[in-house]
């Protein structure tokens, strides 16, 4: 029979990096050491462990990384708990890529970009940020505002400090919710910080984080003078097939796995607020 | 029946306008006559759609689990069979009685739309009912020809209510409710297995039986719980569909009031109530005749240990 | 045009089943559903409607997709898909035939569902006209002609005979292979079609107004307060979903056996409380939201993505089978437009 989209291939976890108390980053390749498939920034893949379950995760590594794919996964359910407990060398099943990805060759090209993330929300944005770094000439300035509960909950901290902060025309603004010993940086919630930093409104903005953070950050951006057509986000929803057939992620006339998960804010206004 | 419907509407209007209740739980007219729908009426004006007739077979008591949590009192009309479910739910602390005003209404048997269809009648504008007959579209039927299975064996009596509309003399049940159970018990194990295999092979796991059952009020059913080990949605294994019904019958045993809703709602007409009646018959034999829901405070035999309790093998013998 | 005496239908079934698998309405216990023809089954061809629709033949209630064998950290994937042999699906009514088109739009869209496609390509459909539509039928509202459904072969019962008209290559091939059929006269069938069409026009729901269910009214319909009352009595059981010919939501689950793990897909219902539940939260927490989703999908979202094609075929199964008598007719009458009473 011809290839069936719902039947995955085998992947193997070759590296596990503990980012925060509840986030680990997993490196996945095929058993013969290659990437399972090509993808665009913002796309996702279905990972599963037989008998435990299957779930959709955004690919946090950029497609310009030709050696492997990475997933930053927060422990919060059956599949994620199982992954957190496994060891390097564990095989998983993988299928993808799914979703529309970020418009890096269209809406983003040539623009100044503003990335705003909260907590694990940085994971999908990291794929775009590293893609931009690899294709630096195609994009303008990059501002990154990233906040988490505490210092220990900042994902990809090493990469941010050692690489992103040293990138040309990259401005990185980090914040944590409450004061913490050993932290000399900004303290405060992301929406307020965004207003404080007062980024010029010529940026194309990308938001990702907990729903409440997105709600208030969008408000802050609108107050600063941004238009909804300039702001993109990526939605989270229960998904099963990933290919727009099982009906689970259907909201309005869209399937979040196929028509999303990346949406522009004005597109979201035309959908019932069930996400 | 017409006078009774009128009296019910008047009672509902009176209680709504006096402010004693804020909502009325009853039935509303459908499109084809037989598709009467349970409904919460919130205003006197909305009662124009209220109906009480031979098509009101649905048991309303389970809706009170949610409705009685809300602010304000709700009036509910209870047929005798519904009343047992109601009492049982009070006993299990599922319904907050303070928020419910109960009105008992008589019932002389409700029509089974499928039986009407078998007699060539589908859409009805109205039905004329006497104690023994129902006349639809000019054709008169004896009650026992077209009433629901649960009504043919009904032994339910009016219980206690806040108010009553009317209770005339009731028809006697047409069949002994344990007749089919006895027939099944008299079969050999192989014959019985073949019977249930046939019946349950039609099961589509739609969960109508579970969701309509007043004894099934778990907010998270074991079959929906991935951590229970028996969560399942469809019959991925042919043995599974039999397990669902038998497990459910065990879960409600001792609390099932024999309201018959499970069999009424099954889209494949599987006589699920027979499983529950088998348990009722066994419980009667082991612990003495017991009817769940007859009152709101007595302890049921399966949730109450007394030193006089028999050992089941003493009654059924051997490896039963 | 071919024909056979009604009393000889068993010969026809045996002849078809001798060459390939035959599925047709069979009564088991008290319910009639599409099942495989075997010696001794009780064929129920006169019954107007099966409990479950014919979608089971292409999109089974549960279907194994793959198996896994695990040893230590390693996984092996075994393709469990089966290639179906050609088969005949006999006695499909107009409503169910239309539903295949709707299911095709979902399952044959890229990426193509290979399991569904294989079955659709293997089938020869013999449709059957509806001599006596029921008052719960409203297929005409959705463009179905129950007097002439047009499968690969169109069958019509006239009096005590069943007539067969081949409409496709496959249909012609099937009829040519059958020795038990005689030649028949098309005029009898024309007469019956007219009679059926008249009965259809007299049905109570033939003039349902769907005009409000336009893509541009999406948010307006979503916010209508009537959803509260429409959904009040809903038990969230899923019966409507399972008997509906066009409902196609499915779940993917793993089943542990001693020999390994089986991954299968099975029917699911958007009416179930767990349908959209995530680790973080559940966007559709109450039954009204789930009820609204099902009907908005069928009447608004699906047509919006599929050239105006509604996700309903008017078969009336939900009208007959809902335990508490809720159904799509009541939704259409409340929200579909001014001409609905």
Provide structural commentary.
The complex is a heterotrimer of chains A (275), B (320) and C (341). Chain A has 275 residues and is of the alpha/beta class. Chain A has helices at residues 78-85, 122-134, 157-162, 190-197, 211-224, 265-268; strands at residues 9-20, 23-29, 44-49, 53-58, 69-74, 91-98, 113-118, 142-148, 170-176, 186-187, 204-208, 231-234, 250-251, 254-255, 262-264. Chain A folds into two domains: 9-98, Beta Barrel (Elongation Factor Tu (Ef-tu), domain 3), CATH 2.40.30.10; 113-234, Rossmann fold (3-Layer(aba) Sandwich). Chain A is built from six helices and 15 strands. In chain A, strand 8 (142-148), helix 3 and strand 9 form a beta-alpha-beta unit. In chain A, helix 4 (190-197) runs parallel beside helix 5. Chain A starts with 8 loop residues before the first strand and ends in a 7-residue tail after the last helix. The model of chain A has no long low-confidence stretch (mean pLDDT 93). Chain B is α/β, with parallel strands linked by helices. Chain B has two domains: 2-166, no CATH class; 179-315, no CATH class. Chain B has 13 helices and eight strands. Chain B has helices at 2-17, 64-67, 80-91, 113-118, 143-146, 149-152, 179-186, 189-200, 208-212, 240-252, 261-265, 273-287, 312-316; strands at residues 23-28, 37-41, 74-78, 100-105, 127-129, 133-136, 139-142, 163-166. Chain B has a five-stranded mixed sheet. In chain B, strands 5-6-7 form a three-stranded antiparallel sheet. Chain B starts with a helix and ends with a helix. Chains A and C meet through strand 1, strand 6 and strand 13 of A and strand 5, strand 6, helix 3, helix 6 and strand 12 of C.
